[in-house]
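Would you mind giving me a polypeptide sequence along with per-residue structure tokens?
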Amino acid sequence: MATMDIIKQSGGEPANFLDVGGTANAERVEKAFRIILKDHSVKAILVNIFGGIVRCDRVAQGIVDAYKNIGDIHVPIIVRLQGTNAEEAKELITNSGLAVYSAVSLQEAADLVNKVLN
């Protein structure tokens, strides 16, 4: 809920919410992206991960793999990674060569969504 709240407070309008749970892997992330991308009102995807249960690097690799499997993703993806293996996760995202933006704080991520959309 905090993710949706901060998007709203930052001037955005959340289209939907999807929780991939504590066992997020490439397959689950890809399924989540495919579900979200079916909604044509989605203008960006904000992935907010606090890696207390799930390792951030595992989610980051899932995001990279999902992006490559899906192919052309027509909306910007912003990823906020905090917690277990967050530095490794940020490296994976940065070195992927994909159009994926990373942020450290939730506010920074929400602001980044607005920046890439304007």
User: Anything to note?
Assistant: The beta strands are 45-51, 77-83, 100-103.
